[in-house]
Design a protein that fits this description.
The protein has helices spanning 2-27, 114-121, 190-198; strands spanning 47-52, 57-62, 66-71, 75-81, 98-108, 130-135, 138-146, 155-169, 172-185, 201-202. The chain is α+β, with helices and mostly antiparallel strands. The N and C termini lie far apart (83 Å). The relative contact order is 0.19.
Length: 205
């Protein structure tokens, strides 16, 4: 009987020890994690290429999608969608609509770091994690955001491309941050969105 009681005490102590260890591990885990983001590539003949020689980047997108430059200046703004803008989306199901906003914001060159990009877009969360993905010529940074009413409250990894000294004007130069915002992307088209991100290249102008 005594042996049985000792075994119960030992098991109880072991369970308590494991629980405390788990709590400590969770509290000491790093706030910022580096996660590799992978996606399939576009198959040959299924895509078109958008190339911006002024800022120095390019990306692929499905050949039946459309891209439209809405505004240009100190910042640039594009819309990328999978419906003919002349016809509209009236006959499409909501889950079939793809509507991606791409915006480029210029900053006076100051050797911005990825933390600076996070701080600029972080909102009210100072410990927001950053994910990285290596692309041709540089890196793509991801910050998880909620799309709110537009995305039915879903969280999505928004992609940011940092372009160092993208534009020079006399003795001044400008860095640019290009943001890829999936304004509306149906579940079956999310893989196309990540293929697009995977295809981004920083090019020599």
């Amino acid at each position: 009987m005594r042996m049985f009681n000792k075994m119960i005490v030992a098991v109880s102590l072991f369970v308590v020890f494991c629980s405390l260890s788990a709590v400590y591990a969770m509290s000491s885990a790093p706030l910022i994690k580096k996660i590799e983001i992978t996606a399939e590539s576009f198959a040959p003949g299924t895509y078109k290429i958008y190339k911006n020689n002024e800022l120095g980047f390019s990306f692929k997108y499905p050949k039946n999608w459309y891209i439209d430059e809405v505004a240009k200046g100190g910042w640039s703004f594009w819309k990328l969608y999978n419906f003919d803008p002349q016809i509209g989306e009236a006959d499409m199901l909501k889950e079939d609509i793809v509507d991606i906003t791409i915006s480029a914001t210029g900053f006076p060159s100051a050797n911005l770091k990825k933390e600076d990009i996070r701080d600029y877009f972080k909102g009210d969360n100072p410990s927001k994690p950053i994910k990285e993905m290596v692309i041709k010529g540089g890196k793509l940074y991801f910050i998880q955001e909620s799309l709110g009413a537009v995305g039915n409250g879903k969280k999505f990894d928004l992609a940011y491309l940092y372009l160092l000294n993208a534009i020079s004007e006399g003795d001044k130069s400008w860095d640019y941050v290009v943001r890829f915002l999936p304004f509306r992307v149906g579940e079956k088209y999310q893989s196309e969105y990540f293929k697009l991100l995977r295809s981004i290249e920083i090019i020599n102008k």
